[in-house]
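User: Let's play a game. I give you a shape written as tokens, and you guess the letters that built it. Ready? Here's round one.
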């Protein structure tokens, strides 16, 4: 009998399973509203033109080679990534109070944050928002945190933020609890705090001496402006909070499979940086040892060149604007069809997703009858909607809501 007999299956990873079923489906009308990736109005993945341009520059540069990068990654990428998060005028950067590390996507960034806080600060308790990207709990559990608990975030009654619940749960947390927050485009509820609400949240984080880990995966894709979307990061920095930023470059650069992220750790005291770096290097050495070049070179080329940077910002805006247009078109159609319920949240929610409020039988009906794939909890990726399929999807949602 094999050593590996009887392992059983791990739980299905829903978005990848949806993808697999979507590709196997032969219906010409099929629509994949599941996976969180940008699509253009033809429903195709979009390689940003500025990314193409930077790739050509990288590939034609004969001075580059394939030697190992330093363990912490490409310096010109790490610095530019951190500047993107904290702003070019950041006092934290000027005072050398931030350690930046190139990671394997946003996922690697979160994992490194979890490992560092657990192994080196011996933290064991993390709070995640109730309803969130499932990997938040997965990563911290896999890292060995014994307490992975939830703070209130979503109010199903108002289909909005449960600010009172959130603040109360943070108030009740013990000192040095790790708190994962979404910088913008909260993935699953598509609902972000307003600047005023962020001020209240940051004040409690500071007063209760909690340790925020800011998941920054969708910068620019909410407002179309990368600075505006970074508001909570800059607020935390200006309030003197010690915190971590787990950045992903998958969505806003369309570099999904290049696996590019950055972990920025902000300290009150620049004299701690060298020891922090040394400890992080040892953790990384045991996991991925050194990060890959390509994505980092491309992003560094763009972020460090004034005109390419402007082109990238314009292309981020194109993506954000297309998402907003699709929200408007879907909302108009549901209102015109008189689909039962209040669909205003389709317009007011932010980022790539709409948390529709559809029930599980309604979701199943959309898939079985209309070949429309979406997560069980009724979250849809607005980018997968196009001017060509929005009528079809709206009618299908209408029928699902009225019959199921
Ligand atoms: C909230 C959130 N955090 C992190 C990630 C991970 O991003 P990456 O693909 O860069 O690992 C995702 C990806 O969907 C996400 O939605």
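Assistant: Ready! My guess for every position:
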């Amino acid at each position: 009998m094999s050593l590996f007999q009887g392992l059983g299956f791990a739980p299905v990873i829903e978005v990848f399973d949806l993808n697999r079923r979507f590709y196997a489906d032969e219906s010409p009308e099929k629509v994949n509203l599941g996976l969180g990736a940008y699509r253009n109005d033809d429903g195709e993945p979009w390689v940003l033109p500025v990314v193409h341009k930077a790739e050509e520059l990288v590939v034609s540069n004969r001075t580059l080679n394939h030697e190992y990068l330093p363990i912490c990654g490409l310096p010109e990428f790490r610095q530019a990534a951190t500047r993107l998060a904290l702003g070019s005028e950041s006092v934290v950067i000027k005072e050398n109070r931030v350690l930046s590390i190139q990671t394997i996507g946003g996922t690697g960034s979160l994992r490194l944050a979890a490992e560092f806080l657990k192994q080196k600060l011996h933290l064991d308790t993390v709070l995640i928002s109730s309803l969130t990207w499932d990997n938040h709990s997965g990563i911290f559990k896999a890292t060995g945190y014994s307490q992975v608990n939830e703070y209130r975030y979503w109010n199903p009654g108002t289909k909005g933020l449960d600010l009172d619940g959130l603040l109360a749960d943070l108030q009740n947390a013990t000192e040095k609890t790790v708190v994962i927050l979404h910088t913008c485009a909260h993935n699953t509820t598509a609902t972000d705090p307003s600047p005023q609400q962020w001020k209240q949240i940051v004040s409690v984080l500071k007063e209760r001496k909690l340790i925020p880990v800011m998941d920054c995966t969708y910068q620019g894709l909410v407002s179309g402006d990368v600075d505006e979307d970074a508001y909570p990061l800059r607020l935390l920095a200006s309030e003197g909070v010690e915190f971590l930023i787990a950045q992903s470059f998958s969505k806003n650069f369309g570099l999904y499979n290049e696996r590019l992220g950055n972990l920025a750790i902000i300290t009150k005291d620049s004299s701690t940086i060298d020891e922090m770096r040394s400890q992080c290097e040892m953790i990384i050495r045991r996991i991925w040892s050194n990060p890959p070049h390509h994505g980092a070179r491309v992003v560094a080329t763009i972020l460090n060149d004034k005109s390419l940077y402007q082109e990238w910002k314009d292309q981020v805006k194109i993506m954000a604007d297309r998402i907003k247009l699709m929200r408007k078109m879907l909302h108009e159609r549901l209102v015109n069809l008189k689909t039962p319920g209040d669909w205003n949240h389709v317009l007011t929610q932010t980022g790539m997703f709409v948390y529709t409020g559809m029930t599980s039988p309604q979701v199943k009906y959309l898939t079985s009858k209309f070949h429309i794939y979406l997560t069980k909890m009724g979250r849809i990726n607005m980018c997968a909607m196009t001017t060509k399929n929005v009528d079809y999807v709206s009618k299908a949602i209408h029928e699902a809501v009225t019959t199921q």
